[in-house]
Amino acid sequence: MIRLNNLERFYEQGVQKFYVLRHITMEVKPGEFISIMGPSGAGKSTLLHILGMYDTAYQGEFYFLDQPVHKLGKKETANLRNKNIGFVFQSYHLLDDLTVYENLDIPLSYRNVSKKERESTVCDTLDRFQIVAKKDLYPNQLSGGQQQLVAVARAVIAKPKVILADEPTGNLHSSQGEEIMELFKKLNQQGTTIVQVTHSEKNAAYGNRIIKLADGWIAKD
């Protein structure tokens, strides 16, 4: 599903190059649940942003569903991302001026889904995540756990092939965090591929494969 070949990412400061990722070669197979670990500054979030096609200033090869992402233009890359990838961030990234319902509707609006079908899908998702009572509330009216629940619902609403999660329980109480991880486990069992970045050994153990980064290199897979 995902294949990286000799991928590198660096920043230039004057004549010097500072490498964030070095010679990353890896594969993600359909249905895997991968946990990426490593100390701060190891390149975890950078790798996730490249996998999510937000960061394109890398060298090397990146294939997604056999498409050479490294050769695609901005529009093609955006289409590939919008159709196949869902994101969950530590800081939720919900749109503050939209209700829960409207936040869930946004990903569907990118996919040429009819209004009637969108309404049906949003209602089903609200029900599935047990947040029907929250549909007319704004993010600032929700607790951290509720906001993250909505963020996960938004990530999966359009049935993406891959969910990318960056420290998804970082701002949550342990019980809320556990709820989110159990939700990921269930989604993975239903066939969704998941790649998460985490500092937590407990959260990492939900995955069936752990990749450890150190100073931008894959130290262990």
Topology (elements, then pairings):
Elements: E1 2-13, E2 16-28, E3 33-37, H1 44-51, E4 59-64, E5 67-68, H2 74-84, E6 85-89, H3 100-109, H4 115-128, H5 144-156, E7 162-166, H6 174-189, E8 193-197, H7 201-204, E9 209-214, E10 217-220
Parallel strand pairs: 3-8, 3-9, 6-7, 7-8
Antiparallel strand pairs: 1-2, 1-4, 4-5, 9-10
Helix pairs in contact: 3-4, 3-5
Describe the structure concisely.
With 221 residues, the chain is α/β, with parallel strands linked by helices. 34% of the residues lie in helices and 29% in strands.
Keywords:
221 residues, Rossmann fold, 6-stranded mixed beta sheet, 4-stranded antiparallel beta sheet, alpha/beta
Question: Can you put this structure into words, describing what you see?
Answer:
The chain is an alpha/beta fold and 221 residues long. It has a single domain (2-92, 156-220), classed as P-loop containing nucleotide triphosphate hydrolases (Rossmann fold, 3-Layer(aba) Sandwich), CATH 3.40.50. Helix content is 34%, strand content 29%. The protein is built from seven helices and ten strands. The chain has helices at residues 44-51, 74-84, 100-109, 115-128, 144-156, 174-189, 201-204, and strands at residues 2-13, 16-28, 33-37, 59-64, 67-68, 85-89, 162-166, 193-197, 209-214, 217-220. The strands form two sheets. The protein has a six-stranded mixed beta sheet with strand order 6-7-8-3-9-10, with helices on both faces. A hairpin with a 2-residue loop joins strand 1 and strand 2. The protein is globular, with a radius of gyration of 18 Å. The model has no long low-confidence stretch (mean pLDDT 92).
